[in-house]
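Work package 3, deliverable 3.1, input record:
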Amino acid sequence: MLIGIDDTDSPQGMCTTYLGAVLVRRLIHEHMQIKEARLVRLNPNVTWKTRGNAAIAFEVDGDPGRAFAIACATVEELSDLSCGNTNPGVVVTETRLDPAFYYKAVTDFCEIDEAVSILDTAGARYQGWKNRRGLIGATAAVASELEDRTSEILVYRRPERWGTPREVDRDSLFATESATFPHTWDTVDTVNNVVVCVPHTPDPVLFGIRGESPAWVMAARQMIQSEPHGIEQLYVTNQGTDAHLLAGIMAELCEGLSYRVQGIVGSAPVTGTGGHVSFSISEGNHTVRCMAYEPTKNFRSIIRQLLPGDTVIAVGSFKKGSINLEKIRIVSLARSTITRPPFCTACNKRMTSDGKNKGWKCKKCDARAADPEIEEIPQTLETGWYEVPPTARRHLAKPLCRGEPEY
Ligand code: ATP
């Protein structure tokens, strides 16, 4: 069977992945076999998410009726039902669901009724609490098919420590990064000297290590020194796979969806209030604004060097008329020049225009020239891929250390 759960936490606490870790232990206690634990990120632009729009699914051998009862009891016990925005959903299905619903949930927006209709058709057991929105994520998680997959080990805090400052040894995190990158990533941000894998929210997570395989994240996890910890859970995930991206056509971008879009830089990048950098790209008659927000830090210094005429592939979510950049490919660089009146070789002074299409003339000696002086602006950028730093990376964004996209 597959068990899916979503929407159990609130900004004040809990985490669906922790609830899943507790459930796993309860199912094992009932002699059930856990074959796989999945952490599935869905459309990052859903505004009613708590944090990272995660749902979980478990592939389990055992009695489905019993597993459903235990999962529902665990949600009743641990989820933060007092929060208006917490609307849990639990699904247990003995047949595989069409992965189309997962693909829609990770790239687009779904309705609760769509999920319910899929569950009814499959004869699944399910329960939704309050407005039942969690059934969307729970259904998408059990329907998920992870063509590309990564791993994360989540280490949780002991309940008596929840809400207190976390104690994770900083040096051990930087040592782990240097020993295991690029097989693990986003433990720390070395360029910005920031710890990335330890959250600051009041949830049960102590830290999470992301990487290419269970073996690599487990090896990295062993290197980290911290406060006495509670339970831990290894998940396979769609994190770091770009599963949210669609091939975009500039004229047809939809609010809240994420794209890769090719275009030619139209306006030079401008740094606005708050340090956010914006520029436009065009494709035919259509133009779209691209944003590199202040939290993307050093990525902005790449963006600021773009010039009108450069061809780029912008990658990110389309929100309020802008593509919020997660990464960018500079496909080709424009030859950029400045055109100025030529010098009079006799007087060593710049000539002035003699009228439209009439060339240039020296005011002093009346010498004439047909062509202007053309100076090439040296290009500081190189073509290729550039990405936001780990501190600004979204869960689903594929880091370049996993390989550059083939588009
Ligand atoms: P956490 O990851 O910390 O558990 P969260 O950020 O995952 O929290 P949730 O509390 O799960 O946020 O809220 C997300 C809600 O949005 C869930 O009810 C989920 O079912 C729903 N949802 C997820 N993806 C979509 C989608 N594509 N369209 C509509 N609703 C969605």
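The first helix runs from residue 16 to 29.
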